[in-house]
Automatic annotation (TrEMBL):
Protein name: Thiosulfate reductase electron transport protein phsB
PANTHER family hit by this protein: PROTEIN NRFC, PROTEIN NRFC HOMOLOG
Taxonomic lineage of the native organism: unclassified sequences, metagenomes, ecological metagenomes
UniProt domain 4Fe-4S ferredoxin-type: residue ranges: 4-34, 55-86, 87-116
Coiled-coil zones: none
GO molecular function, one term: metal ion binding
Length: 187
C-alpha cells in the first residue's frame, strides 16, 4: 500500500487553470463550477488598474488536503466519508445522506454538493479513475504546463515527492489545526 500526497510548487503557477479543466474532464464535473474538486486562488496584485504589478500576484492551487486526521471523516454520521487503503479520503455516494456536516467541518472549504449525484463530493486524487487504471499520477499533475504539482507515495523515500519534501522547505495550510494535511506547498 502507498500513502499518497501532493507537493505544490505554487510559485510556478501561472493561473492558466489547465489543472481545473483536466480535473473536471476526468471526473465529469461541469466546466465553470467554482471550487469543485480543485481550484486556483489568488491574492490581489499591487497597484491600481491599469498599472498593476503582476510580479506581486501569487496564485495558490488548492483542493482537498487528504488529511490524515480529517475532520470531515470524523463528523460523517453514515461513514460515507472514509479512508481507502492508500490513505486517500473518499466518499461513498451510496452512504451519503447530504447532511453537509462534512462541508461544515472541513477547514479547507474543499467539499461541495454534486448536483448530479446529490452527494457531498471532493477531490479523490484520481483514485477511482487514473490510479484505478494503473496510471501513476493525477489529471491535474499530468496537464500542468509549469509542473506545479508532484503526486506520489509519501512512504517511498525514492519517490519524486519524497525527494522534493526532503530537499525543499515546505508548509501545509492550517497545520496548526492538527489535521495532518498531505498537500505540501514548496517554498
Amino acid at each position: 500500500m502507498a500513502r499518497y500526497g501532493m507537493a505544490l510548487d505554487y510559485k510556478n503557477c501561472i493561473n492558466c487553470r489547465a489543472c481545473e479543466v483536466a480535473c473536471k474532464e476526468e471526473n465529469g464535473v461541469e466546466l465553470g463550477a467554482e471550487k469543485h474538486r480543485i481550484w486556483v486562488g489568488s491574492n490581489n496584485p499591487d497597484g491600481e488598474w491599469p498599472n498593476l504589478s503582476l510580479s506581486s500576484a501569487v496564485f495558490l492551487p488548492s483542493q482537498c488536503q487528504h488529511c490524515e486526521e480529517a475532520p470531515c471523516q470524523e463528523v460523517c454520521p453514515t461513514n460515507a466519508t472514509y479512508y481507502n487503503d492508500d490513505g486517500i479520503v473518499l466518499v461513498d455516494s451510496d452512504k451519503c445522506i447530504l447532511c453537509t456536516y462534512c462541508m461544515n467541518a472541513c477547514p479547507y472549504d474543499a467539499r461541495y454538493v454534486d448536483e448530479r449525484t446529490m452527494t457531498v463530493d471532493k477531490c479523490t486524487f484520481c483514485s477511482d479513475t487514473r490510479l484505478a487504471r494503473g496510471e501513476t499520477t493525477t489529471a491535474c499533475q499530468a496537464t500542468c504546463p509549469t509542473k506545479v504539482r508532484t503526486f506520489g507515495d509519501l512512504d517511498d523515500p525514492n519517490s519524486e515527492i519524497s525527494q522534493l519534501l526532503e530537499n525543499r522547505e515546505h508548509f501545509s495550510l492550517k497545520a496548526h489545526l492538527g489535521t495532518k494535511p498531505k498537500l505540501f506547498y514548496l517554498r
